[in-house]
Structure formats: C-alpha cells, structure tokens
Amino acid sequence: MKLTFRWYGETDSIPLDYIREIPGITGVVTALYDAKPGQLWKEESLKRQKELCAAKGLEMEVIESIPVSEDIKLGKPNRDELIANYAKNIELVAKYGVKCVCYNFMPVFDWLRTTMHYVNPDGSNSLAYIYEDFLKVDPKHLHLPGWDESYTEDELQALLAEYKNISHQQLFENLVYFLERIIPVCERCDVNMAIHPDDPPWDVFSLPRIISNEEDLDKLFKAVPSTRNGLTLCTGSFGASRNNDLVHMAAKYAKEGRIHFAHLRNVKYLGDHDSFVEAGHLSKMGSLNIAKIVEALVENGFDGYVRPDHGRNIFGEDAKPGYGLYDRALGACYINGLFEMIEYKKGENK
To answer: How many helices (H) and strands (E) does the chain have?
Structure first.
C-alpha cells in the first residue's frame, strides 16, 4: 500500500512542505487543473509538477484525473479525435512515472451535494447531501453548491438537454467504446485506469448513472476484461447507498486485482431516505466500518494507492470544503494505523 494525499498544484492552500510532514505519506495525487476535458496536456506543466513533488521527496504516481469529455460520454461524432487526445495524455503521464489514472464517467456532475458546510454536533462542518433539500432544487434553474461557476445557466441547460435521449445502456456502451481504445494504450504504457464510482450512486436530474454498485462493476469488467480496467474504491461514494456492502466489495475486487486506488472516508446516514453527511474517518464516527473494509483489502492482496478522502473543516480551518489539511491528516494517520496493524497480524510487516 502507498499512502497518498490530494494536492491541487501550486494554487493549493496546502503546500507540499505540510503534506510531506504527515506520517506515512509517500506521494501526492494531482493533475493539471488548467486543462479542459479533451485538451492535450502541456508537457512543460506536467514536468514542473513532477519536479516540485520530487524536490520534496514525494512521488507523483497517481493522476486524478484526466477528465473525460462530455462529447465522449454522449458518443458524438468527434469522440474518436477526443479519445486520441486522451490516449496521448496517457502516454505523456506515463513518461513522467504515473502508474494510475483515476477518472469518472458521470454525466455533467461528477459529484453532487446540497450543502458544503453542514454543521456537525461537534462544531465541525462538512459536505452533505440532504434528501429534502434536493427535492427543493428546480432542475430548470440549477444553483448547486460547488457548481454555480462550472457552467452558465444556459450552458448547463443545453448540456442536460443533450442527455435526455441517452439511456443507461447507451452511456455504458459509450464507456466501453472509450475503454476499448484506451486500455491497449495503458497496457503498452504500464498505466492502470481506475474508474471512480458515481457520487452519489443514483440517478440525479434524470441523468443516468452506471457505476453505482456491484452489478455495474461486474458488467464493466466483463465487457472489458483487462485488469488495466480497474476501480477506484471510493468508500464514501459507494457507501452513500445503504444497499452496497463495502466489506464484500473490497474483498471481491481486491482478490480480482481490480482495485488500483482507494479513497477511504466515512459517511453517516441521516433519516430514512438517501441523506448523508461526510463524517470523520473513524468507523464509529459514521455508518461504514472502515476497519473491516481495510482488513478486507489487506486480506485479499490489495497493494495499490490509498488516500484519505474528504475531510471535515476542524480546528477553525476555513479551507476548500472537503480538502482542508487537518482532518485529512488525521484520516491519513488513522488509515496508516489500520493498514499497519492488519499487515502485522497477517505477518507482512515485521
């Protein structure tokens, strides 16, 4: 296992000097955040990113993410050109030592919450999805936390209209079409593709979601059998659905060699519907048994990359929601301790 930490490049409020002080961290998970989906990445920018990390003794082996253009998801006539650009970006990141690319195939919204600052009983605040608040959202006049600046209202409505005739099966077929052209490049370049699950794992605004549960994953891995076609096991995303058995899924896909990357975080269910709040990483702070999930990973041979995922804002920190320093650093230490203890018990860490 390699413990990593998300870093948003030179504009990140958390410097690499702080990240490397977190016990157990071997590298960062990053990307080129000024590149739009479908564009070729600039080699000089990636080279600088790599050099900045190396200067602090940190690896840069995971990219999160190389975004997939909506035109590829929609299966538009220009998708072959865009997929060719994606392949060139895979080749480029491989040149600089990247071994894993986390990506998603969610239409329009690659995550959705109803509030960025849910106040927890302990005074911390975190991201949350409140079912009753979601019902109040007008799809024709969308104003969503974290998304108001992503598109103009007209752009967003036009994009939503394009998806009206895209079924779950059509979106899935477009994903397979994409992977059938990308995976051979990954095999040649020694790069794993790790798809991120839908967040949350159900349809929103009538947009199809196709990576939400075990059945979806089995269908994908059957369609594109290469183990380069793998998974980012995001416990918070899969775990938002009360129907997903995360311990079972961790064991199953680790044993199959499909989990290349793991986002470990906890969620706490609220009420009887789909509401949840992102809790602290410890098992007892939420509704997921993080300790048993980690045990399932270790017992079934997982040796990929891990990072603490969304944290709360604590200790008075006013950081990017989900991506402050303190709670994610605490999460990293907790995760590191779980892996160390389970590996000791298994006899792998003496």
So the answer is: 12, 12
Active-site entry in 86, 163, 305, 323: 323
263 is annotated as an active-site residue: yes
Peptide bond into 65 cis (omega under 30): yes
The catalytically annotated residue of 234, 260, 305, 327 is: 234
Give me Rg for the CA atoms of the chain: 19
Q: Which of 190, 184, 196, 16 is nearest to 98 (CA)?
A: 190
User: Does 309 qualify as catalytic in the annotation?
Assistant: yes
Contact predicate 40/89, CB 8 Å:
yes
Which residue is catalytic, options 12, 71, 216, 309? 309
Q: Decide if 196 is catalytic.
A: yes
* Domains along the sequence of the chain with CATH: 2-113+163-266+281-346 (3.20.20.150)
Cis geometry, peptide bond prior to residue 201 (ω within 30 degrees of 0): no
Specify whether 310 is catalytic. Answer: yes
Residues 6+ apart with CB under 8 A from 52: 10, 16
12, 198, 263, 281: which one is catalytic?
263
* Contact (Cβ atoms closer than 8 angstroms) between residue 201 and residue 237: yes
- 323 in active site: yes
For residue 312, give the 3-state DSSP assignment: coil
Separation CA 295–CA 317 (nearest Å): 32
Q: How many CA atoms lie within 13 A of 5 on its CB side?
A: 32
The residue type of 33 is Y
HEC assignment per residue over 208-223: CCCCCCHHHHHHHHHH
Per-residue pLDDT 10s for the chain (350 aa) are 999 999 999 999 999 999 999 999 999 999 999 888 999 999 999 999 999 999 999 999 999 989 999 999 999 999 999 999 999 999 999 999 999 999 999 999 888 999 999 999 999 999 999 999 998 888 877 777 766 556 777 888 888 899 998 999 999 999 999 999 999 999 999 999 999 999 999 999 889 999 999 999 999 999 999 999 999 999 999 999 999 999 999 999 999 999 999 999 999 999 878 999 999 999 999 999 999 999 999 999 999 999 999 999 999 998 889 999 999 999 999 999 999 999 988 776 55
